[in-house]
Amino acid sequence: DPEQQQRFINQIGAADRHVYNMLAEEVLNQQPPELRTFLLETSILRELTPDLCRAVTGAENASWLLAEVARRHLFITAVGDFENVIAPVYRYHDLFAEFLNHRLTTEQPERVIELHRRAAAAETSPARAVRHCIESSAWSRMVQIIEAIGLQMLAEGQTARLEAWLSALPEETRFARPL
């Protein structure tokens, strides 16, 4: 039962991080190689959609892989109501995402930047895209996002977030693109 599974995960995670990591390790090692790779590569995403997963991983069968992760109840939760949504949206349990991301960084550190670059280019949420830009030093893409929505953010009073984004940019990039 997915609801009981979620309660169990929360209890284990709260009780002992080491026990959770051993459980997550066991789950990850039991997956077929293609699904294991998909889990690791999509761990950089906050929300998982078929299109975003395809853009990040390059896997043409990303929709099927995401559905398979959900079917197997691999520490994944549906976000929102699927009845009125064209494509489902999922999110990994926070501890599982952290575990996967740590494994990805440990096993394939050279791949992490490329995955974040792909996510920055494909992400539809400006805030999530900027996070990926920062992780991959994709300053040009980040500036495009800020120039597109910065004035709106100021008008909405989101000055702290905008200031944090601007502070993350290298000084030479800020001076080269004054808007």
Descriptive report:
This protein has a two-stranded antiparallel sheet with strand order 1-2. It has helices at residues 2-15, 17-29, 33-42, 50-57, 62-71, 94-107, 109-122, 126-136, 139-155, 159-168, 171-176, and strands at residues 76-78, 90-92. It is mainly alpha-helical and 179 residues long. The termini are far apart. The protein is built from 11 helices and 2 strands.
Indicate the topology:
Layout: H1 2-15, H2 17-29, H3 33-42, H4 50-57, H5 62-71, E1 76-78, E2 90-92, H6 94-107, H7 109-122, H8 126-136, H9 139-155, H10 159-168, H11 171-176
Antiparallel strand pairs: 1-2
Q: What order do the SSEs take from the amino end to the carboxyl end, as H and E?
A: HHHHHEEHHHHHH
Percent of sequence in beta strands:
under 5%
Terminal CA distance = 52 Å
Instruction: State the helicity in percent bands.
Output: over 70%
Number of strands: 2
Over all CA atoms, what is the radius of gyration?
A: 18 Å
Provide a brief overview of the structure:
This protein has helices at residues 2-15, 17-29, 33-42, 50-57, 62-71, 94-107, 109-122, 126-136, 139-155, 159-168, 171-176; strands spanning 76-78, 90-92. The chain is mostly helical and 179 residues long. A two-stranded antiparallel ribbon has the order 1-2.
